[in-house]
Amino acid sequence: MLYTAKLTGNRRDIQTGSPKALLININPDNDGLFRDHCWVELTPEIEAMQPEGHKKPLLIGFEAKVKKYIKRGTEVAYTLHNITDITRI
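Structure (tokenized):
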């Protein structure tokens, strides 16, 4: 599915071997808000495009799959994974 989002310069879990990048305002097919934010795997493609530090977020388009996970014990939530075909908008 095609999404748009803003790629921020924020990162987490840098030292654990599974670093993440922060996306905000995630919209599927430009129709409605999927999530207000989402932490995704920091791939080389995302890292090359990611703004440094707290610079203005970059609007991007990309393909991704939705992945279900459990948070806080029983609450079901959804995130994105297998992000490909990233383009700057």
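The longest strand covers residues 58-71. The chain has a mean pLDDT of 90.
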